[in-house]
UniProtKB/TrEMBL annotation:
<protein>
    <submittedName>
        <fullName>Metal-transporting ATPase</fullName>
    </submittedName>
</protein>
<feature type="region of interest" description="Disordered">
    <location>
        <begin position="40"/>
        <end position="114"/>
    </location>
</feature>
<comment type="similarity">
    <text>Belongs to the cation transport ATPase (P-type) (TC 3.A.3) family. Type IB subfamily.</text>
</comment>
<feature type="compositionally biased region" description="Basic and acidic residues">
    <location>
        <begin position="63"/>
        <end position="81"/>
    </location>
</feature>
Amino acid sequence: STMPPLLSAIANAGRHGVLAKSAVVMERLGRVDTVALDKTGTLTEGTPRLTDVVPLPAPSPTGKEEGVYGSDPDGRPKSGTDGRPGSGADARRRTGSGNGLGADRRPESGNGPAADRLLRLAASAEHGSEHPLARAIVGAALERGLVLSPADAFAATPGRGVAATVDGHRIEVGAPARLLPDGAHAGPARELEEAGKTVVAVVLDGRPAGLLAVADRLRPGAAGTVAALTRLTGRAPALLTGDNERAAQHVAERVGITDVRAGLLPGEKAAAVREWEAAGRRVLVVGDGVNDAPALAAAHCGVAMGRTGSDLALETADAVVVRDELAAVPAVVALSRAAHRLVV
Ligand code: ADP
Ligand code: MG
């Protein structure tokens, strides 16, 4: 061919399913020596399904269950309660076992009226979010035939969650560690997380209302991709995720990653990348979410997953995986190295 080597490298990358935004990107891809991978939507398929709906009854001074799941059909917390979340012990007693998720509340068993109400409120609040978790929650609600309410004052915070007003109630959906900072209901959440699930807490008018869990599948070939990147760079990739430590470890163990950094906000992902860069490393970040955009921008080279990728991630990245195969990433790194050897 008469094409200059770098242009032919771009063409070759295209054949492998990667769209590089410039020839310079191809050079950079060939020079990376450190890889940081996002979890949700990058190592996993990014189309999680809702697996568990766990309403959390609020304690009351009278000993009767109150709040959304008590006798008040409108679910408005009654005045006269202290507004505090139930203790872990309380949640355990009420769910009928020592581990907080007794046989009477097995995963997938959350389909009573309280579960439907919890799911309907959460889905109504999540409707405006493009996050994979939001899509799982809204999809499950619609599958159950629940009718969503419009959300007012909707706000999404990348890496944290959403908040909105639904049917006059303030609803927050997000990471339990941030929404339930006093550790309330940590037991039930932990059990779900140990199964590799992502758990979000639902807070209603400032009180813990329940937990929702979703599970995502590993991408086929994720372990092979990690192995290929390890061979190419001489060190195993790191995992950067906003998700919880236990779900992160669950995925990391299956793909051969030991350097796991979980619970990161978008700025903290970028800070990890800048630290490596400051130590002289050239970092390749692969991600898909709005929450990955700062890390993609901070990296020597940022690659976004095209199918699951948010608009912001696609705009910020230097290259986009358009064929939705993670294996394209090590393939283009190898290609770029070969092309680079041609021109230097
Ligand atoms: P990841 O790095 O795995 O792609 P994110 O940074 O997007 O994850 O999200 C981190 C955590 O923030 C999630 O596990 C969840 O607890 C919370 N979160 C983010 N967006 C939402 C949302 N739309 N609804 C509920 N929780 C969310
Ligand atoms: Mg992601």
